[in-house]
DNA sequence: GACCTGCTGCGGTGTG
């Protein structure tokens, strides 16, 4: 891959003296200069770099902070490229495509693009196509696409499934991918890569530009965007770094601040005071229920703020969210309590203050949130951390260090997800058809599928042609068939329709609409939560206490209730672990504390806590691994604090429990958080004997890691859960027609049916392998687990016998998550695995 | 005495 682009330089030729900005003979570059000058805006060197590169037909990735003019950089670049193509002004179909990850951004983008467009190509218009586009507008576009189109990756894929796709995209010159960092790390990104490969094949000179926030792996991000064309791509860094301030609200009485917990309501008065002092505040929480609780408590404390503060999260109805967003834009709201639903999107200029309640979990996430304030060139972005428990003060200090050092997480790019490929094959079979060799070569030009083997390709092709080994007899799974010329096409209209209805990679659980009896939708809530409610029960949702009345056709009908308490809905969502970057930064701070260095307000505030910890036990540092042994009525506890994030701790704790139980039979309860884990045995266990130098070396060994991890966890159940998503994306499960969704139970049943059938009759099914791989890579972070083990082996083990739970242990003790792991069951499980292995070996 | 977790994003019938 090419070297990173050096800082752009401005040559004399670029410095244009605009004496006559409207002059007919002005070059497009001069016209752009005039356009900027008319607005009194500065042209940044990075913008010129992008323009020159695009004019010459180069693709690239531009990373820049928000509000730095990056939109104009790539948009003018696209227009310059079009003009450099000679017959530029002629319309005749699509020329520039703009991809955005969110519908809500599409309309704003169209608006932003219109003015600059008028300057260079006044007879053009920008169209928009998303799921919201009206059918009449669609029909118009289907006849001929507008010269510039703003759309989503899913809508682009749908366009590629049209028989006339090639004709529609024939004249496409430039693709812009906005917010590429949001897409690259998930399967939407894989789908985008496949779509771009298709467009590049039709026009080998296609110019592609991505816009991205700063990441730890920018070069890889560019490679994923440009595929095998990345060698000629350029990586451009946007305008001067924005100043970012990270600070912390310190509790009034740090010594009385809770050791554990996530809600943080002790900080309510401080947060209210902060909101009071500023015009407009965004307060981010980590979960939807936390947002609900904070909103409710804030209103109770400040009833006069009714109508001035609002709630925003992903389960609230679109109309509610749009109302909140308008209020923010117009500066009518004093504060909004939100989840990451407001991470992206509309630029809310009036936002003056950003609070992060609870752990930010990652540096990139923290920066993203800081960027919601001071959203204009030259202004400072500031985010204030609001701790919800004592150790988050430590994390806050570490977060500031990590930001200052620019230690930003990398985003992992999914490696050849076959479910997305299977979907793509049907899409392309619809979109004019394909021959095997040609499409294989094309798919391999993407970064995600660069290592796709011929065997895997054949498997995927066979899977869409015959339904694989086990579904051969079902005609609905013979989705593509070769004609006499070897061109694979979709033979059946029903299959085509079902496929188009299922395009995309976002899989969500079935949910129930929450509606007032009197009319109006408040939002949606998980079926499992509603199913536990009886008529007359109260619950908190959308910032109100509601009374559940009845269910009717997948909708829950409610009315406003009196009283102030109700059940809090629980949604199932992601469990984002603390990033390595943040964890290391926190560990570094502990290291300093162990030497008596407490720098900054956060560290000062936890001096009492850390001193107590040191007095009762010790401090975990980057060089020592702390283990605590405690007895209680519950049994014998072992606590360890590797500071590796919760998903690694899940693997680590299960692994240790399993390896322990080979030495001494026993049943352990496991408790996990981002800082460490606890193993609890109800019967006496000699931890000391297990934690000798030789013992710990065995426990932390990376030998047989994979086997041991698989054996220690119920990996097959985890894989089955993963498989639900894969089966949906691969098109095995039809989700039903819009407006009449299948219930969650039906969806689950059919996916587990496929899982079982494949396991029994088609063990070589690569979708099963993928499910297992995704569990290992994403849920258990096997690579990070291995790294952690290797790192821990280097640390000195410090074992302390403690009388009671230390400040570090306490949060683990109260953690609700308990996972039983019995040796008896384990023995059975291992025996079964051995049998299965033997059987597999003998059938070879 | 301490606590009561879990994000976001998109798309889509039929036919006279």
UniProtKB/TrEMBL annotation:
The GO terms this record gives for MF are: ATP binding; ATP hydrolysis activity; DNA binding; helicase activity; ligase activity
Q: Does the keyword Iron apply?
A: no
Report what the protein is called.
DNA ligase-associated DEXH box helicase
Please give the CDD domains that the UniProt record associates with this protein.
SF2_C_LHR
Q: Which residues form a coiled coil?
A: 768-795
Top-level taxonomic group: Bacteria
Q: Name one GO biological process term.
A: DNA repair
Q: Which Pfam families match?
A: DEAD, DEAD_assoc, Helicase_C, WHD_Lhr
The question of whether Signal is a record keyword is answered with no
Q: Which family does it belong to?
A: Belongs to the Lhr helicase family. Lhr-Core subfamily.
């Amino acid at each position: 891959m090419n070297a990173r682009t050096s800082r752009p330089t401005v040559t004399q030729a670029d410095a244009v003296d605009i004496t006559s900005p409207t002059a007919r003979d002005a070059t497009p570059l001069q016209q752009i200069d005039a356009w900027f000058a008319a607005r009194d805006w500065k042209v940044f060197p990075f913008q010129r770099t992008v323009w020159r590169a695009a004019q010459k037909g180069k693709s690239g990735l531009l990373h820049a902070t928000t509000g730095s003019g990056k939109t104009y950089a790539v948009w003018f670049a696209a227009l310059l490229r079009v003009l450099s193509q000679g017959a530029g002004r002629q319309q005749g179909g699509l020329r520039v495509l703009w991809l955005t990850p969110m519908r809500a951004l599409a309309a704003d983008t169209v608006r932003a693009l219109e003015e600059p467009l008028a300057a260079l190509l006044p007879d053009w218009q920008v169209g928009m196509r998303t799921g919201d586009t009206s059918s009449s507008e669609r029909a118009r576009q289907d006849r001929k696409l507008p010269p510039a189109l703003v759309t989503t990756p899913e809508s682009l894929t749908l366009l590629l499934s049209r028989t006339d796709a090639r004709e529609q995209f024939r004249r496409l010159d430039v693709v812009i991918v906005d917010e590429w960092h949001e897409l690259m790390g998930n399967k939407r990104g894989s789908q985008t890569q496949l779509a771009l490969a298709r467009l590049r094949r039709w026009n080998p000179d296609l110019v592609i530009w991505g816009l991205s926030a700063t990441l730890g792996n920018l070069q890889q991000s560019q490679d994923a965007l440009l595929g095998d064309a990345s060698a000629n791509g350029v990586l451009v860094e946007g305008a001067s770094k924005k100043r970012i301030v990270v600070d912390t609200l310190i509790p009034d009485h740090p010594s009385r601040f809770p050791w554990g917990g996530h809600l943080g309501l002790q900080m309510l008065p401080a947060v209210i005071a902060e909101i009071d002092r500023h015009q407009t505040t965004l307060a981010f929480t980590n979960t939807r229920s936390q947002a609900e609780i904070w909103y409710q408590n804030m209103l109770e404390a400040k009833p006069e703020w009714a109508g001035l503060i609002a709630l925003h999260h992903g389960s609230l109805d679109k109309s509610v969210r749009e109302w909140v967003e308008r209020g923010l834009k117009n500066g009518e709201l004093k504060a909004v309590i939100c989840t990451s639903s407001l991470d992206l999107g509309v630029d809310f200029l009036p936002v003056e203050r950003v609070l992060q309640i609870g752990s930010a979990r990652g540096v990139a996430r923290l920066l993203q949130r800081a960027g919601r304030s001071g959203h204009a060139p030259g202004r400072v972005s500031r985010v204030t951390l609001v701790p919800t428990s004592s150790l988050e003060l430590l994390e806050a200090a570490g977060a500031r260090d990590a930001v200052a050092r620019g230690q930003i997480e990398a985003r992992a790019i999914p490696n050849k997800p076959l479910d997305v490929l299977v979907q793509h094959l049907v899409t392309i079979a619809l979109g004019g058809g394909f021959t095997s060799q040609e499409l294989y070569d094309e798919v391999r030009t993407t970064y995600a599928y660069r290592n796709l083997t011929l065997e895997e390709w054949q498997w995927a092709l066979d899977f869409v042609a015959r339904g694989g080994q086990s579904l051969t007899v079902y005609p609905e799974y013979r989705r593509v068939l070769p004609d006499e010329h070897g061109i694979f096409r979709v033979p059946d209209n029903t299959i085509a329709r079902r496929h188009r209805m299922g395009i995309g990679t976002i899989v969500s659980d079935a949910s129930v609409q929450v509606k007032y009896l009197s009319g109006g939708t408040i939002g949606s809530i998980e079926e499992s939560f509603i199913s536990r409610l009886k008529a007359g029960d109260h619950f908190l949702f959308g910032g109100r206490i509601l009374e559940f009345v009845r269910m009717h056709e997948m909708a829950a009908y409610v009315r406003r209730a009196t009283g102030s308490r109700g059940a809090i809905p629980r949604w199932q969502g992601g469990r984002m672990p603390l990033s390595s970057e943040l964890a290391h930064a926190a560990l570094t701070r502990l290291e300093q504390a162990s030497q008596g260095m407490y720098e900054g307000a956060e560290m000062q505030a936890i001096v009492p806590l850390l001193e107590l910890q040191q007095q009762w036990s010790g401090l975990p540092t980057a060089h020592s691994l702390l283990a605590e042994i405690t007895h209680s009525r519950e049994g014998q506890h072992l606590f360890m604090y590797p500071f590796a994030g919760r998903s690694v701790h899940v693997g680590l704790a299960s692994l240790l429990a399993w390896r322990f139980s080979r030495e001494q039979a026993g049943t352990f309860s496991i408790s996990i958080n981002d800082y460490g884990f606890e193993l609890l045995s109800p019967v006496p266990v000699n931890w000391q004997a297990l934690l000798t130098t030789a013992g710990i070396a065995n426990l932390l060994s990376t030998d047989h890691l994979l086997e041991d991890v698989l054996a220690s966890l119920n990996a097959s159940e985890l894989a089955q859960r993963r498989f639900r998503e894969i089966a949906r994306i691969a098109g095995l499960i039809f989700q039903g027609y819009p407006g009449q969704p299948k219930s969650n139970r039906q969806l689950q049943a059919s996916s587990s049916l496929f899982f079982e059938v494949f396991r029994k009759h088609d063990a070589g099914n690569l979708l099963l392998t993928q499910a297992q791989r995704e569990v290992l890579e994403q849920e258990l972070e096997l690579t990070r687990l291995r790294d952690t083990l290797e790192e821990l082996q280097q640390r000195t083990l410090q074992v302390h016998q403690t009388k009671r739970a230390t400040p570090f242990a306490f949060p683990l003790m109260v953690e609700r998550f308990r996972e039983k792991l019995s040796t008896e069951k384990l023995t059975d499980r291992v025996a079964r695995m051995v049998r299965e292995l033997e059987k597999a070996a003998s059938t070879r």
